[in-house]
Design brief:
The protein is about 5% helix and about 50% strand. It contains one helix and six strands. The radius of gyration is 12 Å and the shape is globular.
Length: about 80
C-alpha cells in the first residue's frame, strides 16, 4: 500500500519535522485501519527512513506519522511512501 506525504505537522510558529501528514485513503474509516502500521520512505540515494502511523488527521483520509530517529527532509513532500 502506498501513501503520499502531504505536509509537515506544524503550528503557528513551529514546524515539527518528525511528524508528517500522509494522504492514505479517501475516507476516515479506510484510513483508520492503517493506524499502528509502519511507513518507509526511501531517499533518492537509497537511505530508508521508517516511521509509524499514530492517528487520524481530520476526516478526509489523512493520517499522522511519527518518524522517531530522523525526521523526513523537505524533498519528501509530494512523494510516495510504502505502508507495511
Amino acid at each position: 500500500m502506498e501513501a503520499t506525504v502531504m505536509h509537515f505537522r506544524q503550528g503557528r510558529h513551529h514546524v515539527n519535522s518528525h511528524q508528517m501528514i500522509l494522504k492514505i485513503a479517501d475516507t476516515a474509516e479506510e484510513a483508520e485501519k492503517t493506524i499502528g502500521k509502519t511507513v518507509t520512505w526511501t531517499s533518492p540515494a537509497g537511505k530508508k527512513i521508517t516511521g509509524k502511523i499514530s492517528a487520524l488527521h481530520g476526516r478526509n483520509g489523512n493520517v499522522r506519522a511519527i518518524f522517531a530517529e530522523l525526521g523526513l527532509p523537505g524533498q519528501s513532500l509530494g512523494q510516495k511512501v510504502v505502508v507495511n
